Amino acid sequence: MRLYVHIDMDCFYAAVEERENPSLKGRPIAVGGTSRRSVLCTANYEARKYGCRSAMPTYKAFQQCPNLEVLPVRFELYQEVSQQIYKILKRHTNLIETLSLDEAYLDLGPYHDKGAKIAETIRYQIFDELNLDASAGIAPNKMLAKIASDWNKPNGQFEIKPDQIESFMKTLPVSCLHGVGKKTQEQLNQLNIITCGDLQAFSTFDLVKQFGKWGAKLHELCRGIDIREIQPFRVRKSISKEVTFPHDIEKPEDLLPTLEQMKGEIQALLNHEYQDRSIKSLVIKLTFADFTHTTAEVSQTHQSSQTYKTLLNKAWLRGNQQPIRLFGIGVKLHEKKENHQLSLF
Ligand SMILES: [Mg+2]
């Protein structure tokens, strides 16, 4: 079982516009197309009070709320802010799946009970550094984390712990399930299935008969089971540290304390952020006094001072024993997680 956090920015585009122009605060605004035929991307909470929603045609939004101010979409600005949010998320894990500019799943590793605290920290950092509100959901799988982030929106968070899943699911409306759209919801409601508890009364056989393959999925989802993993936007291929010295270093032996320090930093990263990744090889990088550089690499599954030293000597001899300007060490990682258990409970 793993720990997931779903981060969802509140009214993201509108919130960014309010931040850029504080006089918009407290007024009903939306971001979207301004011509009659276009639609809204986001409405702030003042506009939502009038029923304005994302994907609503702009003319309809004006009918609901004549005072609505519709601002043109500034995609580049939102993208820039989104990247800043991503950087904050990256401080907490490398396993991030971005769903859109304002939404992401974080995999915080094997399940532990610090999820709510971490989510609080992330939301605080986003507010403190970017002046924007976010909501968060904390749970042992992606579907539940996403449902939870909606629970105390805006500017709130909610956690579903493993031992709370059963009772939580009993009363959860089926419409909250991942993949249950309007059509499935209507079909289910016609069968008097309103909550996931109602749905749990049906066997896989019954549900497959009624819904085909999707029925088997429903049988899992209504019990809060979701085995989808994070699909990281970018998977890190290596971890490295390097240092450029103010004065060139004459001999490899003089690099050994630096080597030990950098090795320790890499090990800390491996232990805390990349527990799921395995080492493919060790690498040494040197830049010499004449600015030429070289790297030496060897396949190995763990960090070893001895191996680094051997690589260092090899690289140093290649540079004709010149003084060293820059020294770097690193590990290359296997792309795939190894021996990662998928079991939920
Ligand atoms: Mg959002």
Record the strand order, biggest sheet: 5-6-1-7-8
Corresponding CATH superfamily of the largest domain? Reverse transcriptase/Diguanylate cyclase domain
Bound molecules: magnesium ion
Helix content: 25-40%
Label the CATH architecture of the largest domain.
2-Layer Sandwich
Task: Look at the helices and sheets and give the structural class.
Answer: alpha+beta
Number of helical stretches of at least 4 residues? 13
Q: Identify the overall geometry.
A: globular
Question: Would you mind describing this structure in some detail?
Answer:
- Mean pLDDT is about 90; it is low at about 340-345.
- The strands form 3 sheets. Strands 5-6-1-7-8 form a 5-stranded mixed beta sheet. A 4-stranded antiparallel beta sheet has the order 9-12-10-11, with helices on one face. The chain has a 3-stranded mixed beta sheet with strand order 3-2-4.
- It has 4 domains: about 1-10 and about 75-160, 2-Layer Sandwich (Alpha-Beta Plaits); about 10-75, MutS, DNA mismatch repair protein, domain I (3-Layer(aba) Sandwich); about 165-220, DNA polymerase, domain 1 (Orthogonal Bundle), CATH 1.10.150; about 240-335, 2-Layer Sandwich (Dna Ligase, domain 1), CATH 3.30.1490.100.
- It is of the alpha+beta class.
- Helix 4 (about 75-90) crosses helix 5 and helix 10 crosses helix 11 (about 215-220).
- It is about 35% helix and about 25% strand.
- Strand 7, helix 6 (about 140-150) and strand 8 form a beta-alpha-beta unit.
- The radius of gyration is 26 Å and the shape is globular.
- The protein binds magnesium ion (MG).
- Magnesium ion binds near residues 9 and 102.
